[in-house]
Design goal:
The protein has two domains: 141 residues, 3-Layer(aba) Sandwich (Rossmann fold); 139 residues, no CATH class. Helices cover 43% and strands 15% of the residues. The protein contains 14 helices and eleven strands. The strands form two sheets. It has a seven-stranded parallel sheet, sandwiched between helices. The protein has a four-stranded mixed sheet with strand order 9-8-10-11, covered by helices on one side. α4 links the parallel β5 and β6. The longest helix has 18 residues. The site of magnesium ion has 4 residues, from α6. The site of NADPH dihydro-nicotinamide-adenine-dinucleotide phosphate has 28 residues, from α1, α3, α5 and α8.
Length: 380
């Protein structure tokens, strides 16, 4: 029996994680849930799973029919992550944005296995998280479908024999538009992803291709492969979730329906494949396409490599600037194409060069960058 603590439980990944639990009751017990602002979903999930620890979001504390241990707010997320009573504990991080960093740190220190959907944690603080993972000797297992695929392709292989990782990209909601057609695109159109149903931020990140840039950084930290050996490719069908090419020309790939239940289930029971309700992939009639992913069409991808290669605090700045810009776009404060401009201005700003790369700085500078960008557009 694995004991689960799920933060971001009401979101897209959180709810799909709970679907897996529902279908595998003998495998998992939910011990902790951190819920968001949606009262209906939050109360329903807590009452269904009756976790012994609950964390409510600041300002969104709800009445319950029983008395769990209660934590509140961002500090509460860290307390829930630190709570530990059982042998085999898994911390599922399904928060969105930089709010995922410190709870992950707490969970590592509590020696929980980390099942990570919150890619922003590795983008902003990858080396620091890896140091902690090593120090506390905990498994860090990705939920992101591309990284789940790469993990499976690398199983049993020697990293020295890897020629390159190839991360596939669906192209996001505007993949059939030329750059000049992106002027004035609406939030509603950006939120319509052709293949995946996901939270708002990652759907916008997919449209700008920053999501793929983040995934390159995520892959670097998860698999310890240099950036020169991490490529991306456009694959509209989202059936091949990613590939690994080896020195002898062999390419291994992982295929499946575009359904996050599968990589979530794999992360929860790694390295085992659980029974799950996902659609089986019908190989007959499959028609797969691969195309070059152009930096010119998607500059955010280039910016991610740029920030990653600069290193230090810069990937955290990339993440923070993106977080603020996406929020502004979702609030109708800026145009879609201004997102990339805001990010570029921050990652090329030399003022961050003197800031040392520590966990405290990653968190405080990220918060500051987000606040300052929002303020420029009149948002508190
Ligand atoms: P959602 O927006 O659907 O869910 C995020 C949840 O986290 C929301 O319920 C939100 O609550 C909650 N939350 C955020 N901040 C806090 C906080 N400070 N305190 C308490 N609750 C908080 O996001 P997704 O599930 O789509 O994505 C989660 C992560 O997984 C992201 O990092 C994303 O990049 C990654 N990911 C997602 C995939 C997907 O298919 N959705 C695929 C691969 C990776 P509230 O609504 O109140 O803000
Ligand atoms: Mg992904």
């Amino acid at each position: 029996m694995r004991h689960l603590y799920i933060v971001g439980a009401c979101g897209s990944i959180g709810r799909q994680t709970l679907d897996i639990v529902r279908n595998n009751k003998e495998e998992f017990k939910v011990v902790g849930l951190a819920v968001g602002s949606n009262k209906e979903i939050a109360v329903k999930l807590i009452e269904e799973f009756k976790p012994e620890v609950v964390c409510f979001k600041e300002g969104y504390v709800y009445e319950l029919s029983y008395k769990p241990v209660i934590f509140v707010g961002d500090k509460g997320l860290e307390e829930l992550a630190a709570y530990s009573k059982y042998e085999d504990e898994v911390f599922v991080n399904a928060l969105v944005g930089m709010s995922g960093i410190m709870p992950t740190v707490s969970a590592i220190k509590a020696k929980k296995t980390i099942a990570l959907a919150n890619k922003e944690t590795l983008v902003a603080a990858g080396d620091l998280i890896n140091d902690l993972v090593k120090k506390y000797n905990v498994p860090l297992v990705p939920i992101d479908s591309e990284h789940s695929a790469i993990l499976q392709c690398l199983t049993g292989e020697s990293k020295k024999e890897v020629k390159r990782l190839i991360i596939t990209a669906s192209g996001g909601s505007f993949r059939d538009k030329k750059r000049e057609e992106l002027i004035g695109v609406t939030k509603e159109a950006a939120l319509k992803h052709p293949n995946w149903s996901m939270g708002a931020k990652i759907t916008i990140d997919s449209a700008t291709m920053m999501n793929k840039g983040f995934e390159v950084i995520e892959a670097h930290h998860l698999f310890h492969i240099p950036y020169e050996k991490i490529d991306t490719i456009l694959h509209k069908e989202s059936i091949v979730h990613s590939l690994v090419e080896f020195n002898d020309g062999t390419i291994k790939a992982e295929l499946g329906s575009p359904d996050m239940h599968t990589p979530i289930a794999y992360a929860l029971r790694y390295p085992h494949h659980l029974q799950n309700e996902s659609d089986n992939l019908d190989l007959i009639g499959l028609n797969l396409h691969f195309e070059e992913l152009s930096d010119k069409r998607y500059p955010c991808l280039e910016y991610a490599y740029l920030a990653a290669k600069k290193g230090g605090i810069y990937p955290a700045i990339l993440n923070a600037a993106n977080e603020a810009a996406v929020k502004l776009f979702l609030l109708d404060k800026i145009e879609f194409l201004e997102i990339e401009k805001i990010i570029y201005d921050e990652i090329t700003n030399k003022k961050y060069e003197t800031i040392s790369y520590t966990l405290e700085n990653v968190v405080s500078i990220s918060l500051l960058v987000i606040k300052e960008i929002l303020k420029k557009f009149g948002v508190d």
